Amino acid sequence: MIISVANNKGGSGKSTTCANLGAALAQAGRRVLLIDGDMQMNLSLSFFEEEEVLAFSEGSANLLGFLQGEAKAEEVIRPTRLAGLSVIPSSAKMSGLEGWMAGRRGSAQVLTKKLATIAGEYEVILIDAPPTLGQWTAAILSASDRVIIPVEAAPWGLFGLANLFDFLKNVQKKSAVSVMGVLVTKVDERKNYYRQTMETLADLPDIPVFDTVIHVDSAVEWAQDVSRTVVEYKKNSRSAKEYAALAKEVEALCR
After folding, report:
1. Among 157, 149, 134, 136, CA closest to 179
2. Distance of CA 198 to the CA centre of its chain
3. 176-195 mean pLDDT
4. Which of the 8 DSSP states describes residue 240?
5. 191-246, pLDDT tens digit by residue?
6. Closest Cα partner for 44 from 15, 10, 7, 24?
């Protein structure tokens, strides 16, 4: 199952979701590959020190090099501390990918073709998409079976969601990708934003919403500060337990 994590609004928790869901699935015994599709490289930083991530970015042994045929799969796939969990890191040079894609026939399927060569080695592949609605995000969605959409329980958390759904509909004209679920993140139940977000999502026709929600938890930031996921850094924290619950939901939906 290839699952993208996407939202064109920044700050929704895409990279955090991708990293911690991947870690939780790996801890549940799944073979998982994470792909950092965002030039900000936050997913990569969830597992490797800043110096390592910058080193990955500078050469060709990263996602960009893999896409452009400058590096083989075995050169770009990096094992993590967690058994069964590997990462293809991103590159700051991904900023030029849209231009590269624009000049090549069939570039919309470049990721699909690349993943076809390695997909059989993993049970789940999670792709962290950039917060944009361009050719690269379309290629990520086209390569995916399902998409998870993190939404922040905040005043503007749902802003732009309609644009994302319209964009997804266009991608679906040539792809079978579908929405696995909307994941509500950064929840603080003391505020009305959570209730308002859930009520709004409930009114959207045919849009599945995960039962699991992710609450605000300082343990997530502590983990990120030392380049770890919260599920390994503080496994008894509230958010670690929530990501474990999310992993169970995702596993059920993958069957």
Report:
1. 149
2. 22
3. 91
4. H
5. 888 888 888 888 888 899 999 999 999 999 999 999 999 999 999 999 999 999 99
6. 15
Secondary structure (3-state) at 85: strand
Torsion of CA 93, 94, 95, 96, to 10 degrees: 80
Distances (CA, A) of 5 to 55, 95, 126, 179: 25, 19, 7, 10
Contact status, residue 146 vs residue 177, Cβ threshold 8 Å:
yes
Superfamily per CATH, domain 2-254: P-loop containing nucleotide triphosphate hydrolases (3.40.50.300)
> What ranges do the domains of the chain cover?
2-254
pLDDT tens digits, residue range 116-150? 999 999 999 999 999 999 999 999 999 999 999 99
